[in-house]
Every structure is written in C-alpha cells, then in structure tokens.
Amino acid sequence: MAPGGSACKEVLESYSTDYDVAMAKLDNNSTPTRATTGSGGKQGIYSTNGVHELLECPVCTCLMYPPIHQCPNGHTLCSNCKIRVLNCCPTCRYDLGNIRCLALEKVAESLELPCTYQSLGCNDIFPYYSKLKHEQHCRFRPYNCPYAGSECSVTGDIPTLVAHLKDDHKVDMHDGCTFNHRYVKSNPHEVENATWMLTVFNCFGRQFCLHFEAFQLGMAPVYMAFLRFMGDENEAKKFSYSLEVGANGRKLIWQGIPRSIRDSHKKVRDSQDGLIIQRNLALYFSGAEREELKLRVTGRIWKEE
Ligand SMILES: [Zn+2]
Ligand SMILES: [Zn+2]
Ligand SMILES: [Zn+2]
Ligand SMILES: [Zn+2]
C-alpha cells in the first residue's frame, strides 16, 4: 500500500499534467513534464493503484462512476449502492443526503487505467471514463458458454470453453468440415420448445457449434438448425456454411455465415438466421409414420477467400 500522503501527492501531480500526459502518449514520447515518470514507471503504477482503491466503492467494490456520492463525514459510495443502503452511510450510519464527491470524480477523470482484461491479453490503457466502454467491446473479454440447453454462467477464452463443453456438458466433438447429423425425437407433437445436444466441429483449427432447436415461430411450430462460431464476429465472417435436410426427392438448403458466440443462441434464433423447417415438413422428411422426428441434417463449413 502506498502511504496516504504520497498517493495524494501523486494524484495532484498527475491531475495537473493530465492533458500533457495524454498528448505525450499519442506520439509515444516521454515528456519531462510528466511528474509520475520522474522516478520510473513502477512508482507511477504503484501510486495509481492507491487512487484506484479510493475509487472502489466500499460496498460493492466496483469502480465508481459519476455521480459519486459521499456522506457528511466524507465516506464515498457509488450511486447504485446509495440506493441499496437506503441512503444510510454504511460506514458511519449518517444520513447520506445528496452530496456529490466532485473532487473524486475529477481525480478519476485524470486517471488512466489498464483494461480489466489485461491478464487475457489486452495491453491497452484508457482514460478512466472510457475504460468501461472499451471493456464492453474489448476483443479479449471472455466469452459466455455457448451451451444453450440451460443457463450456464461459465465464461472464458475459447480453449477454456472448448474444454468446459467437453468436460461439463459432455458435448459431442467432431473433427472435419463436413457433417451428417441425426436429430430424433419421439412425440414431436407434444414438444413446443426443445434444445438438442450441441455439436462442436473442429475445422480450420477453429470451433463451430451446431444448434438444433424446436420452438414456436408465431403460431407455427418449427425446427431450426444454425451454426455459431467460437470467436469474434470479424473472424466468423471469414467462414460460410451450408445445411441440408430432405427426403423423398425434396430438400431444403440453407447457406449462411456462422454467427459469433458473442451473439446468444436466443438472439440468433430470434433473428431466424439459420435453416428453419416447418414441423409438418420435418415430419414428412422423417418418414411415413409422422409419429417420430427423425431428421438427417448434412452440412459443410468452408473458408471464404
Ligand atoms: Zn457500490
Ligand atoms: Zn459516513
Ligand atoms: Zn481491453
Ligand atoms: Zn457451460
């Protein structure tokens, strides 16, 4: 921990040179006016951490953003927690009133902090108030588990999620860019909403999730198959895929671009970005009895040049 006095001194100095520092960063030159670089980068980072802690809400430990509140005794609190504690200071129990801590808001403005996902590979540094916005779109931010059957709260990078799908969801893994998959369900007429086991394909050194679901599209019961790419959208766009389902000389063909798993399976489903099969047709494709769903979906993934 930096002693309070020195942390405070560093704050004032870095605040007074805020714009110089920002300018200096742009052209990548060190500048003699930057106070915190005087005795080496380490100390600058160290004192920033001290201020960083001042900006942590004592209740939820999140970084505070304007309006930052304080009680008459100077204890600070984020605006979400102010509501949660019913306006009673959690430190001294005084009524919080409606006092803003403009000084701390100003200090925050002068800070530059590394992206939260630094440990995942992001080396960018941001002014305090643009950090959150960056993090919402940071390409290193963790992905949500793409498994659709249940709400799963696991997040991580792609290798972590591939291992998680295999180990925890017992998902089928296939190598290769063509596939031939059977979806079976007895009593399909009773099913309004269903999700089949996810299948993961390994090809071009990347992973793709094949989803198959039953749901109501307006009044019509339908099945839908679609592919999601385990990576960001700009990479997903480099691939295409096709799906086919049919029988008795008829078939439906879908060609599309896999969606990034940044888009939830529900979002993709609701946008109908995949092969949609009306239930009647699906049962027709399933065979003569129409009692059981027995669909064979074939497909292929390729890379666009
Ligand atoms: Zn809080
Ligand atoms: Zn207080
Ligand atoms: Zn980042
Ligand atoms: Zn999961």
TrEMBL record:
Q: Which GO terms describe its cellular component?
A: autophagosome; multivesicular body
Q: What is its EC number?
A: 2.3.2.27
Q: Main location per UniProt?
A: cytoplasm
Q: Which InterPro entries match?
A: 7-in-absentia-prot_TRAF-dom (IPR018121), E3_ubiquitin-ligase_SINA (IPR052088), Sina-like_RING (IPR049548), TRAF-like (IPR008974), Znf_RING (IPR001841), Znf_RING/FYVE/PHD (IPR013083), Znf_SIAH (IPR013010)
| Domain called SIAH-type: residue spans | 110-170
Which keywords, in A-to-Z order, does the entry hold?
A: Endosome, Metal-binding, Transferase, Ubl conjugation pathway, Zinc, Zinc-finger
Q: What is this protein called?
A: RING-type E3 ubiquitin transferase
Biological source species: Quercus lobata
